[in-house]
Amino acid sequence: MNLEGLEMIAVLVVVVLFVKVLEQFGLLEASYDDSVEDELELSAVRHRPEGLEQLEAQTRFTRKELQVLYRGFKNECPSGVVNEDTFKDIYSQFFPQGDASTYAHFLFNAFDTDHNGSVSFEDFVMGLSILLRGSVQEKLNWAFNLYDINKDGYITKEEMLDIMKAIYDMMGKCTYPILKEEAPRQHVEIFFQKMDKNKDGVVTIDEFIDCCQNDENIMRSMQLFENVI
Amino acid sequence: MAAGVAAWLPFARAAAIGWMPVANCPMPVAPRDHGKRQDELIILNVSGRRFQTWRTTLDRYPDTLLGSSEKEFFYNEETKEYFFDRDPDAFRSILNFYRTGKLHYPRHECISAYDEELAFFGIIPEIIGDCCYEEYKDRKRENAERLMDDQEENKDNKLPNMNFRETMWRAFENPHTSTMALVFYYVTGFFIAISVITNVVETVPCGSTPNQKDVPCGERYTVAFFCMDTACVMIFTVEYLMRLFAAPSRYRFMRSVMSIIDVVAILPYYIGLVMTNNEDVSGAFVTLRVFRVFRIFKFSRHSQGLRILGYTLKSCASELGFLLFSLTMAIIIFATVMFYAEKGSSSSKFTSIPASFWYTIVTMTTLGYGDMVPKTIAGKIFGSICSLSGVLVIALPVPVIVSNFSRIYHQNQRADKRRAQKVQKARLARIRVVKTGMSSAFLHNKRNGLFNELLELPCSEEVEQHLSKTASLLESQHHHLLHCLEKTTAHEFVDEQLYEQNCREGAVQSYPSCSPSLSSQEGPTGTCCTHQARKNPLPDASVPPTCQGALQELSAVHIQCSDQPALSTSRSSLNMKLDDTSRLNCKSGLITTAIISIPTPPAVSPEGDSQPLTSPSMQTIASSNAVKVSTL
């Protein structure tokens, strides 16, 4: 058979169609992406907290207060655990003018006591119990834990600078006086001058607690949030 | 502030303990709530509708919210019922799941709302019964497509600083972005049309000399047609090369369908140039000329309908495959039957089974050319069965393709409507207004609230009444939190306009020609007070979006322009400049409308006269950075 140009093309087309039909019936496995199936990934971790009585025993909240706290918690995080992004999101809603995500990151690490990447309701309530109903010693302990980013028992200048920058970030840019680059650094200097008694460049927990207990302003401000619920 | 997040306010305020040890200033007084407990409990069930069921019914599924002890958190002691502040309509189907064991998806429900309810009650959507599962999955897919469309739209609003290559690419992809692109678009469209028409007219027999048969126009006016072809191919080549240059990923561009069509459209011409007029290859040459007709596919860049058609055909691949397969089956069956039926008759055209294929196809598609007709009775009977079944086989998969096309087409229509710029802009403007309303509420309350602090009276009764009238407890607690942050960092929140003001005064000295809007808004500093006086003292949501847009543009400019030297001059300008009376006037203009800080040096005393309330607060604050002053 003398196949000329067009006939050859016609034959090619027929062959291609045939191959496609075979693919249709799975006899020739072509690679088609099933993006639909990706949606079927099972839902993420869901966590349920311990019973109300247990939490009542472990924290200093009353039953009613725990109920109130849980409702709010569950509303924002139906899955029962907060991961860092949700935490940042929630915290950012309180500081619309600035960027609260860095500070929220440090807070998250402070709340997530077992460092598993998510804050469950128990962690949350334990943290709140210390912050709102704990003794001054416990509160200062908690604050020290927050500042000590790598949890080695010492606050270095770098850690403090990170925290300070995070706090200043929350202010945003529309401030008066206008925020300068070295404002956090200056603030850290003042802080270290106050706290670092033996001038060794780090603040230990004892120096921290001692200094705070001698400072009237700080003592007074610790009592501010007592009746917050 | 969203009500849901309000429940997290205790947490946010508790976390503020982290700021306390680093603060240098004393903290403001916390608002007392007078023992006024906000009663959150409404004595209703699911938002008012009472549902009743047995406990054992709920216990059937212990890994969900209702089936476990988690629901104790929602128990209301007084009314002895469980209260959930959720949608009662959606709750119906959730409760039915416990009763019947099957979860149904109500068709009128929005897919994302339903998903949220399921997530809240701890039920995984995969449990949805087979009766409703397909619908659920379809809606979910539509929603995902819509979200992807939205994301792609937002990607289109790029920043203004694109380099030349990116601008060119964008001009190619969206012709409506600039006039150049639109011109280019129409010119190429015109030339595609010209090229196609030329190809067609080339073969029309035009004019005849008496001794020869009709010659097609192409052979009569060879030169003219060649020139036309050359011009078109030149334009197409230039266009292709420009697109290749501008493409962000050349490799991906070269693999895309449109570029392959472009190449196929222009290649025959070049191959024709290269090849000599040889007899052997003339057959192949004729084939190449056929490919010139592919130029008509270039129109698909110009017509969205064509693109949708192509996309539909691609997405209906399975239906098309089914159609082809069933047709092939039927053709083979009927061709065999017709061949054997007509084998007996003399001078039959049905010489072989493949020859009968032609008859079967023509009959099944109801064409009926009549060049092959059965002559025997058996042949006629089978022929009629063939044509009847042909109608059925072809009509069945076609509606599926049509509905697919319709769905995709409507989605595109919707996307186009949404892309209409006005809608986006108005919506974004409204959202922005709400957001600034939130932050300006704080500044507004700051001015009102400070009145209380300055008098240094520990919360007299009528001031508290006044306060509670203006701000709910929640708001006052939120404002107290923001206040603590201000004290910790010894800086204050100001609204955007004041910030622009400060930035401008600092930056105008070093960058006088930052942007045209700068000069149009505030010329020399001397006019800034009049502008300030004209301004609404409360910078709330009444500022029109366009004005805000200009201000934001300004702030964007300043972020680029102003850096350390500018900022330090603004600080020093506060300290000194007794001689610059115009600047001082500006300052007083500022003071009458907002809170600013005046440094302690008494050099700026002229302002001190205008607010007798400054002095008491000046001493209470120990920080060297800022002294707070307010006037009302």
UniProtKB/TrEMBL annotation, chain A:
Membrane topology: Peripheral membrane protein
Superkingdom as given in the UniProt entry: Eukaryota
The entry's keywords: Calcium, Cell membrane, Cytoplasm, Ion channel, Ion transport, Membrane, Metal-binding, Peroxisome, Phosphoprotein, Potassium, Potassium channel, Potassium transport, Repeat, Transport, Voltage-gated channel
One GO cellular component term: voltage-gated potassium channel complex
PROSITE patterns: EF_HAND_1, EF_HAND_2
Biological processes, Gene Ontology terms: regulation of potassium ion transmembrane transport
Domain EF-hand: start-end pairs: 99-134, 135-170, 183-218
InterPro entries found in the cross-reference section: EF-hand-dom_pair (IPR011992), EF_Hand_1_Ca_BS (IPR018247), EF_hand_dom (IPR002048), Recoverin (IPR028846)
Gene3D superfamilies to which the protein is assigned, alphabetical: EF-hand (1.10.238.10)
The keyword Isomerase appears for this protein: no
Localization annotation: Cell membrane; Cytoplasm; Peroxisome
Molecular function (Gene Ontology), one example: calcium ion binding
Keyword Protein biosynthesis: no
Record SMART domains: EFh
PANTHER family named among the record's database cross-references: CALCIUM BINDING PROTEINS (PTHR23055), KV CHANNEL-INTERACTING PROTEIN 4 (PTHR23055:SF30)
Family according to the record: Belongs to the recoverin family.
Protein name (record): Kv channel-interacting protein 4
Lineage summary: Eukaryota, Metazoa, Chordata, Craniata, Vertebrata
Gene: KCNIP4
Automatic annotation (TrEMBL), chain B:
Keyword vocabulary terms for this entry: Ion channel, Ion transport, Membrane, Potassium, Potassium channel, Potassium transport, Signal, Transmembrane, Transmembrane helix, Transport, Voltage-gated channel
One term of GO molecular function: A-type (transient outward) potassium channel activity
Signal peptide positions (record): 1-16
Subunit structure: Component of heteromultimeric potassium channels. Identified in potassium channel complexes containing KCND1, KCND2, KCND3, KCNIP1, KCNIP2, KCNIP3, KCNIP4, DPP6 and DPP10.
Membrane topology value: Multi-pass membrane protein
Record-level GO BP terms: action potential; potassium ion export across plasma membrane; protein homooligomerization
Residue span, BTB domain: 38-107
Major localisation: membrane
Top-level taxon of the source organism: Eukaryota
Pfam families in the record: BTB_2, DUF3399, Ion_trans, Shal-type
Cellular localization per UniProt: Membrane
Transmembrane segments: 180-201, 221-241, 253-275, 320-341, 353-369, 381-402
Statement: the UniProt record of this protein carries the keyword Nucleus: no
Listed SUPFAM superfamilies: POZ domain (SSF54695), Voltage-gated potassium channels (SSF81324)
Protein name: A-type voltage-gated potassium channel KCND1
Keyword Cytoplasm: no
Family the entry assigns: Belongs to the potassium channel family. D (Shal) (TC 1.A.1.2) subfamily. Kv4.1/KCND1 sub-subfamily.
GO cellular component: dendritic spine; neuronal cell body; postsynaptic membrane; voltage-gated potassium channel complex
